[in-house]
Amino acid sequence: MHGGPALAPVFERARYPEATHIHWWHQPLAKPCAERPYRDLLDAALAELQRVAGEGGQPLTLMASSFGAHLAVHLARQAPQLVKDIVLLAPTYNPEDASLRLARRAFRVHSHDHHAGKLAAALSMYEHDPGRPRFWDVFGALTLLPDVTELYFGPTGGAQAASDFRALIQQPGAFDGPSSVAISDDFAALDHTPVASPFTGPVSVLFGTYDPIIDADKDRTLWETVFPQASFFTVETGHFPLLELSLEACLDPA
């Protein structure tokens, strides 16, 4: 389950064309004027799990990246009997905090860019008056900076992954902005106090050493509350371990 929200699995499919045993789920877009787009996505994810597990006749491994980790948490809570094990790749517990951390990192890297002042002003206004409107102001200013997507990747093997990411993100259907905004805002309106999951099977959590958006120490505490049995690993990547490491290394980091 990919992140975003509203990113399509074009990156995973391009990197692992031979992985026919993996179901790269293309998540549905938010419907226009939907009242609960994030919760609609959760419902769709559960229906997809039930369908694929039913066709295979056995529990499934859930592999979730970034924001997709919240879908995995929902599935493990609603249908633990259909889940064999869980692999969380750079799971983002609080997407708003994560995006703000990326914005501050981008400002430090691109402080001499002529758009940097707009980002600084947006961050300052958010700090004085936090909330979704100010958050989207920050996000909009962030997109004005050059090569922001390169910050997602680590120094070893990340250059090619970043280049591939830039090319693929421009493909039609790779990312849907309106769905991302709608799903993100609906998610932000809900309570996300961590609660222990009824799923007791194996859980692996991978954090990238060079991830610009995750505070691994802080987030580990949150994920330990949800999955007390989880094993945590640090890998030499940025925010997308699956695009910098091999599939085998992500599924079996030990």
From TrEMBL:
SUPFAM superfamilies assigned to the protein according to its UniProt record, in alphabetical order: alpha/beta-Hydrolases
Gene3D superfamilies membership: alpha/beta hydrolase
Coiled-coil ranges per UniProt: none
Domain AB hydrolase-1: 56-244
Residues annotated as transmembrane: none
Name used for this protein in its record: Alpha/beta hydrolase
Pfam families (UniProt xref): Abhydrolase_1
Statement: the UniProt record of this protein carries the keyword Methyltransferase: no
Entry superkingdom: Bacteria
Keyword Ligase: no
UniProt keyword terms in alphabetical order: Hydrolase
GO MF, any single term: hydrolase activity
InterPro entries in the record: AB_hydrolase_1 (IPR000073), AB_hydrolase_fold (IPR029058)
Species this protein is from: Duganella guangzhouensis
